[in-house]
Write a structure and sequence with these properties.
Layout: E1 6-10, E2 31-32, E3 35-36, H1 37-47, E4 52-57, H2 62-67, H3 72-80, H4 84-94, E5 98-103, H5 110-115, H6 118-121, E6 126-129, E7 133-136, H7 142-153, E8 156-162, E9 172-176, E10 184-192, E11 204-212, H8 216-222, H9 233-240, E12 246-250, E13 254-257, H10 261-273, H11 279-289
Parallel strand pairs: 1-4, 1-6, 4-5, 8-12
Antiparallel strand pairs: 2-3, 6-11, 7-13, 8-11, 9-10, 10-12
Helix pairs in contact: 3-4, 8-9
């Protein structure tokens, strides 16, 4: 049960922080320059050794389904225009992985979205990559780091980083069982979005990456509505801690909150600075506007 070749990407939320565009357009399709974040997530999963990916969507997000389908009319047009490289690039997107879709009937929270993946998981451990989170990395994808830790512990793994105190109220915050150690440590509690800094058991927050064992499904089915009136994944993980070991993996990559406007802008700027065809122009422009 140590090999993980499945991943779930929850992408059914309304994306209210990006209204009005998300009124009729999936937040997960917002481009980081010219590549939607959902593609970055799929690529991370694939580079982590995962072959099968389930994307959880709502009925209003069919653009995501269409994006991972072949568009023969577009291919024909590009071929006739002599743009064969563009055709190769687009076909590569649709063949990145075995991508399937499940539908969350109502926005009842992340925990409810994960429940939609029970049949897909087939009683095996699986990775979770949240649609609001982009993690940039130099060597190893964050999901691969979590999988490596799972292979050592055979337990639920929560991807985390230490963050600024002022932001703790936005996330699930973990309490170490003994002490915080790199790259991973066991936890004994989980506080979802603490309203006050004094209620936060550490400065280590869950940031959009998980490896979950099949034990999560019965735990989610027993979980009652929590913060925001939603079924919280962190509450289900917290209940697992009573009988199972749960570990944090401090992943090394830089995480961007694509669900926030500033995080989105940060991701675009940083990604532009890593692209040879854009880097010099972006640097020149930034120098000009900060004079």
């Amino acid at each position: 049960m140590s090999k993980i070749n499945k991943a779930v990407i929850p992408a059914a939320g309304f994306g209210t922080r990006f209204l009005p565009i998300t009124k009729s357009f999936p937040k997960e399709m917002l481009p980081i320059i010219d590549i939607p974040n959902i593609q970055h997530l799929v690529k991370e999963a694939v580079l982590s050794g995962i072959k099968d990916i389930l994307i959880i969507i709502s009925k209003s997000k069919m653009e995501i389904v269409d994006y991972f389908k072949d568009n023969n009319s577009l291919y024909d047009f590009l071929e006739k225009s002599g743009k064969k490289e563009e055709v190769k690039m687009l076909k590569k997107i649709t063949s990145m992985a075995n991508i399937s879709f499940a539908y969350q009937k109502a926005p009842k929270g992340l925990g409810d979205a994960i429940l939609c993946a029970e049949e897909f998981a087939s009683n095996q451990p699986f990775a979770v990559l949240l649609g609001d989170d982009l993690v940039d990395y130099d060597t190893i994808p964050a999901t691969k780091e979590l999988i490596e830790t799972y292979q050592e512990t055979k337990s639920t793994i929560v991807g985390c980083k230490e963050i600024d105190e002022k932001d703790l109220h936005k996330f699930g915050v973990v309490k170490p069982k003994d002490k915080i150690s790199y790259p991973y440590f066991e936890i004994c509690d989980f506080v979802e979005k603490p309203k006050d800094i004094s209620l936060a058991p550490s400065k280590v927050a869950s940031l959009g990456r998980y490896v979950l064992t099949p034990d999560i499904f019965p735990a989610l089915k027993k979980t009652k509505k929590g913060v925001g009136g939603e079924i919280q994944l962190t509450d289900a993980i917290k209940s697992l801690i009573e009988t199972k070991k749960v570990f944090v993996r401090l992943f090394s990559g830089k995480r961007y909150d694509i669900g926030s406007k500033f995080g989105y802008i940060q991701a675009i700027i940083d990604c532009a600075l890593k692209r040879d065809e854009l880097k010099e122009e972006v640097i020149s422009y930034m120098k000009e506007i900060v004079k």
